[in-house]
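Researcher: Here's the sequence for the chain we discussed earlier.
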Amino acid sequence: MSQSSSVRQEYEVVLEPLLTVPVERELPLGQRLWQQGWLRKSLILIVLAVLWELVARYQNNDLLLPTFLQTASALYDGLISGELLNKVGISLVVLLKGYLIGIALAFALTTLAVSTQLGRDLLSTLTSMFNPLPAIALLPLALLWFGLGQNSLIFVLVHSVLWALALNTYAGFLGVSQTLRMAGRNYGLKGIRFVLLILIPAALPSILAGLKIGWAFAWRTLIAAELVFGATSGKGGLGWYIFQNRNELYTDKVFAGLAVVILIGLLVENLVFDTLERVTVKRWGMQH
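Model: Thanks. This is the structure I predict for it:
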């Protein structure tokens, strides 16, 4: 058989349009709305508010449990007068200072831990010693060392952030695959450049989890510390606002202050950390 006869002739098959295949219908409006996370969370908050109102009306004692509407009115008055906003501003300034210092120290410790054996021993020893120690328990020493001022609060905030973030970050660094590590070393990366360009991007889910835990610890530690700190010095932020109104038996204002604590926590969780996860680890396919 000749070579020319063994070659198959090329041809083109024209496909008919699939007009008979049914087009998938759009989801009903109710299902599309239910897929929105913010809407589901808002519905949960509304249900909790209704339950609060019903229980308070059944209790019928404003001193023990004001209604949701009374608390909302106290919250509105505090925001309009500027008193609550001023207290929130004082608290957030102190919180950010302690939080950022804690982040810097945590990354310094974990960078040292992944670089040297002495650093690993140091991080392991310090976290074993200080991580179980409640931050608020250090407030009396902080007041003795730093006096009545922001420095005392910043000290306990650093303690509350440092160890949780350091543990999560170091665990994330240990979980980085050997393939990525070898790729970084092949490019000549060492020391801080190796940590910044290889370890931190690969361990970002664990780092973000540590940042969230550190934020929660710092926020609740600050409020608790301001209760003591405010009672000592007559100054303070949101914690002092709650403590002062509790002494004066303005229970609706106490609940308004607690509501602000919760709202700030929800805003930071949903606007800051969820956005960071969406534009980093979820976008990169590192987290579902």
